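To: structure subgroup
Subject: Chain for Friday's discussion

All,

I'm putting the inputs and outputs inline so they're searchable in the archive.
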Amino acid sequence: MKFITGDIDTLAKRFGFVALYGFGSRALEAKRCVEEGLPLDRANPADLDLGVQYRRDLRPSIEDTIRLTLALEEAAGTRVDLVDAGAADHNLSLAIIRGELLYRNDPGEQAEFELYVLRRAGDLAPFERERRRMLLEVR
């Protein structure tokens, strides 16, 4: 099955999300699929990592997240690992927005969210460097 923008747009309206990102090993494949209307490679055993940015006034329930995951799996024709980018820790949120933007319906809100994630990652960078140094320190 093809993972097309129309499918994503319908799901965005139904579940209230602003943006959808592909990240991880299949991000570029997902981007090509959305842009060119090509099907995802069904022979690839890896799941499709997707990050979703919900409207800022919406906090979905676990049930809604599961429903959205299942709907995305049906649209994509493959297993999906869905992450709420707004609820994820700063490292994962940063990885998500550094991935491939597959869809957005509110460029302003999407850009504000990315700026928030980048600022948060920048603010926490010294602490992250220290944490990594301590983890790698030989005892």
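Points worth raising on Friday:
Residues 5-136 form a domain with the Beta Polymerase; domain 2 fold (CATH 3.30.460.10).
Helices lie at 5-15, 27-36, 62-76, 90-97, 107-136.

D.
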